From TrEMBL:
It holds the Pfam family ABC_tran. The lineage of its organism: Bacteria, Bacillati, Actinomycetota, Actinomycetes, Kitasatosporales. Keywords: ATP-binding, Nucleotide-binding, Transport. One of its GO terms (molecular function) is ABC-type transporter activity. This is ABC transporter. It comes from Streptomyces albiflavescens.
Amino acid sequence: MAELALRELRKTYRSRGRPAVDAVRGIDLELRSGELLGLLGPSGCGKSTTLRMIAGLETVTGGDILVGGASVVGRPAQARNIGVAFENYALYPPLSVAENLAFGLKARRRGARGSRGEVARKVAEIAERVALTDLLQARPAGLSSGQKQRVALARALIREPDVLLLDEPLSHLDAAQRDTTRRELKRIQGDLGHTTILVTHDQEEALSLADRIAVMKDGVIQQLGTPYEIYDSPANVFVADFVGEPAINLLPGISTGDGHARLSRTVSFALPVKVAQDREIVIGIRPEDLELSGGDGVPARVSAHEPLLESGIATLALEGVVRPLVALTGPEVRLVRDERVRVGADPGLTHVFDAETGDSLR
């Protein structure tokens, strides 16, 4: 498969009488052959616009798109060997699954590769890959959401694309179908080795599928790294807050200059780095990195406790601290409202951000 590179890619929307909108602001990315990159971010951050520019469905304001080292900017979508699986499936209702899969090959009229026997062979081959063999004669109306998604994926793969683009591929599936389809998607992409970009707002989807993740906000990549790097070493407050469930605890504080930060008159936490005295910071502690005990730690009052099967979620109030603290507990822990506990955190697992810029200080 081909490498993909984005060079200072930009997209600006202009409308008469209205201010210009910069949807994508100079993205630089390089994907290795066979890599799966997740474009992760909230709605409106520019991730789908980026995907559409790569596919040739959106004009490029500035920058370049290179597939296998050659620029594709200016080429129409049909001249780019790029497969796209859309969020809404975009299947043809009157056609069977087999006819949906064959449609693109027949329309492209690629000589011998478009012959009837060759098309049938390719349809059978990709159907076996994505577990659609028993559904080839069915029509989209009779398929489940998960089956429709597999057909959309197979239709993108059957053209043997240099690059595969997945636009929110699991967003319409229920929880059980999403888990199953996610595992199938991981297997298929690994088996076929397509260079792939996955656009999603679902952090679990990105963390479980992607080799690397680019977290976007307001048309800019905030951080690019492996799932572990994104989760364990967030570059700023936005990344820390967007990635993680339950969400990270973000607590404003002031450095005391002695390796601690004061959150209130009576509450302080140890810091993993030296920070100048009286500097305003934000401490980030993930719920799973908090420890409850009856001895050492900061005094806290239990506001609520949700006992789940594998774990529990405790909401804690700290004296003089406005924001509640959320901690994960073991399945054996049982807490009641207003119970008094002590909570502590390992400084090595604590994140520190500048209060003004939001950037990590680690």
